[in-house]
Design a protein that fits this description.
Layout lengths: L9 H8 L5 H8 L11 H8 L4 H14 L2 H13 L1 H13 L1 H9 L12 H4 L3 H8 L5 H20 L5 H26 L1 H6 E7 L1 H4 L9 E9 L5 H20 L10 E2 L12 E2 L1 H10 L3 H7 L3 E5 L1 H16 L7 H9 L22 H15 L11 H10 L5 H25 L10 H10 L6 H17 L1 H13 L12 H10 L5 H12 L4 H18 L4 H15 L5 H7 L1 H11 L4 H8 L18 H14 L3 H28 L10 H32 L5 E7 L1 H4 L9 E9 L5 H19 L10 E2 L12 E3 H10 L3 H6 L4 E5 L1 H15 L7 H17 L18 H15 L11 H10 L5 H25 L10 H10 L7 H22 L4
Amino acid sequence: MTTVPGRRGSTFTRLLRHGFTDPSAAERLLDLPGLSSVRADPVLLEALGATADPDLALRGLVRLVEAEDADERQILLDTLVTAKPLRDRLLGVLGASEALGDHLARHPRHWQALVTYEATDLHPGVAEFEHELAEAHDPDSLRVAYRRCLLAIAARDVCGTTDVAQTAAELADLATATLRAALAIARTAAPADAALCRLAVIAMGKCGGHELNYVSDVDVIFVAEPVDGAEESKAVQAATRLAAHMMRICSETTVEGTIWPVDANLRPEGRNGPLVRTLSSHLAYYQRWAKTWEFQALLKARPVAGDPELGAEYVDAVSPLVWQAADRENFVGDVQKMRRRVVDNIPADRVDREIKLGPGGLRDVEFAVQLLQLVHGRSDAALHSGSTLDALRALAAGGYVGRVDAAHFDDAYRFLRAMEHRIQLYRLRRTHLVPEDEPDLRRLGRSLGMRTDPIAELNQAWRRHASVVRRLHEKLFYRPLLDAVAQLAPGETRLSAKAAGVRLEALGYADPAAALRHLEALSSGVSRKAAIQRTLLPVLLGWFADSADPDAGLLGFRQVSDALGKTPWYLRLLRDEGAAAENLARVLSAGRLAPDLLLRAPEAVAILGDPQGLKPRTRNHLQQEVLAAVGRAEGAESAVAVVRAVRRRELFRTTAADIIGSYGTEENPAEPDPGALVDRVGNAVTDLNAVTVAGALRAAVRERWGDTLPTRFAVIGMGRFGGHELGYGSDADVLFVHAPREGVDEQEAAQAANTVVAEMRRLLQLPTADPPLIIDADLRPEGKSGPLVRTLKSYEAYYRRWSLVWESQALLRAEPMAGDADLGREFTDLIDPLRYPMEGLGEDAVREIRRLKARMESERLPRGADPTLHTKLGRGGLSDVEWTVQLMQMQHGWAEPGLRTTRTREALAAACSAGLIPGEDAQTLDEAWVLATRVRNAVMLVRGRPGDTFPSGPRELTAVGRYLGYEPGHVGDMLDDYRRITRRARAVVEERFYGA
């Protein structure tokens, strides 16, 4: 095929037009002597161009031709150009599978397996495959015969003679025949063992479901019984040897490669359990110990090899247990755990390419179908199928899922399985990753019939089908629930009310009847509002089911919808702002506090749809809003009502941001740094309470004295308030200080200051719909016995003469929060020498602090409280960490400026930087302090009231766990982790605080 230099020949152009990506190499291959008799035949070039990869197909053909001897080579070439069925099959396989091209090069006569075109050849079953494998009497010959059969299956697949479901079924039938042949080889090798036992091989997984991949583990379970007169233990040992030999025959790599691994890990106790059990042993395990996922796996159990009667007995015995799984006590919790995707073990750079386990992948469809089978199959035998597609059709026929939705998922599943088949067929390797290289993507797209722009078409179709599967839970689990309470067109099949209740219960709803009433109230009717609700609810129900309390979430949504249903923006916000609906679902189902705050003013739901809505507002911004509102108000009570409404709105903003940051959403993962969440809440609640106090102070002064109080007045934050570490349920610890203005009598000034304090406290605790703010001044000099308000001079005199070491320690957290800023600075200047004493603390003072701490531990822990789980006073809890940090502040604050802060974590970090505590110890204390703080916040969010220890109720405890990042069923892990972290912190406290 010579060409004029500098010009492309017509063959080169034709090769390009037929899809060759390396026409020069293709020209050289066509010029080889072995193809001399067919190189000019246009039929050959046309057929090569129709393959998934014409270059690969031509290379494979050349290798096959060169492997044949001269006589057979000409027969092959003559048949190739004259017989279209062979041409399409052979070149189709060579263009799709490099591995099968290698096989043909090693066994060139196997091309003849593609010549026949009989009816049985088009759709072979187990009997036909057994016939093909009948001459295999050792592992090598079995591998060769297996690949010959696989070649024919692949040929039918790539030519479109069989669809993806038929191909998967043929692969499962070939696996069945192969297991039987392998067992026969094992039995022949050990006739004495074979004579002792009856052994049945039960296929599980995709093989059991008649939907196997090209390259996949073949999951099995072995069951054995002794023959008459044999001892059971010896029979089981003999069966175990036969089973192990059978597995090696299939799994081991020989000169002819391997077939596939045989995996028996789905057996009772997994790899820790015996390989073979008797039927009674299987039943004893399943009746007493099995978990829900094991019954889910048994959905696909199918006897395939060995003793057929024993195999049938096994399936008959376990089948009733499978369909009773949904009645098990822990079914709901197990379902919630299983429904959550486990992609943590997939490397981040692979998640988007995972066609099986990734979002919108095959596992989603398979799991969802299996779950619905478990829930509804106990009362409907039509759902008892091991095949995903057959079960999906049965679910649609029974009204358990919508017919249109089922058709969409059928299409998506078939497309994803076809992709998986073609990806694995190329090199016959077990993989579920979509390739990244353009040549591989091009071959994959062309193998699926995409010829114009294969890569773009493939990516578009894949993303479209994956997006359909991502909405699977909404479509399959929840939309039919709405149909159960809706008016459907005549002839439409719907989920019965009983079946809907069963499904809701399986999905975690404790009161299915109430849930159905809520759904009916929200979605009934023909109004536009009801239509939008019918669109929203399937999605929301899924999010509610992901929480610890789905019932509370749905009830809260109905209450908010009832309150805002007539406002034009509410449902539009949830429908059009993608994050708003999910954020609302998370907030409503996470506990009592946030929904209570929202239901007092439902319009605050708008915060959830604003991209900036969850960010805390600055103190200056809030103070401007509050003081402006007080200035416009008619009187003190109405002014503080506005102030408290702002506080409630901002508390909702803070709780919502905390919940969403802790849970994460589909678009935004959970905040990975728990310390950042704690700091965000502490700063936001502290700023909010400071502004609230400032507003109440302005209102009290304005009501009686106008703009100016007769005395300068400041509110000093103490404890967690001063430390910017307030939780949702914290009181505001304060000191009040005043200084008479020039010319004002001290008695008049004192009376004014006391009046203002009394009025502030009254206004902030008035019974209203808004949460009160408790002002606690018990940390003042002389405690409850001392005056509520003192002048700056009085504080100075007291601290100079009477101050105790614990009072100096309490002043470490003192920070001005409201009122006269200059007076606040004067107060801190006054107390700095007390809290950061020059040259640190003396030995007596250190001893006194340690004595007070030990006394507090022994006397203040509530009776009956578990000291290992009490977040404030327990071992390694807040008190332990804070006293340790505060001791370092008082000893070294005079010399280390970084220690002069009211914030615990900031002071701990400064102490570490100054070399006062090793980094590992500082990290241990910080981790324990953050965890204990988060537990307190979680308890308040979940219960709606403060608490210092974990709740005792299982649902509330689970909700606390969800907030802390623990999946359902891992409450024990949460408590163990808390004890472990705080135990380590206590060891640091013993050394650093007590000097042990």
